[in-house]
Fold:
Amino acid sequence: MRNFEIVDIDHAEKDVYYLAGYGAIMKSTNRGQHWDFTAANNDYFKGMAWINALEGVAVGYAGLILQTKDGGDHWEKVAASGLPKNRKCLNVDMNMQGDFVIAGEHGFMAFKRAGASEWRTVRPFTDKDLRALKIVNNQDVLVCGNGGGVYLVKWPD
Structure:
């Protein structure tokens, strides 16, 4: 039994699953029969993405962006250069190349290519909260938001 809100679940590979929620990210290596806390804490984690059981990224509502390469034993902050300070993040996606996209309240979206030093934000195309996103290919991101909005967004040049 958990005493905190859980808002996201992801399947990394085979029997490995992750949960994100208020104050923590948890990991199960036996299809959800037992859960352990990872080292990520101190934010309301709203979304995460895993490309395998070791490599993942998570966003906190207050704007914290964390990345792990060891299944959650250690997390590093992803540099926030180029991002507004008052951002409210609701979800994240990453691809095998190491590109990141984050989405949040009031149409907030930001993109970061692997190896880039700064994030690129796009002008909001909606005032609705953007809650789910998926990198489709090297140029497009599919985004869903409040009010039933579904958008195909081009990666900024």
User: Anything to note?
Assistant: The chain has two domains: 1-72, 79-157. The first strand starts at residue 6 and ends at 13. The chain has a mean pLDDT of 94.
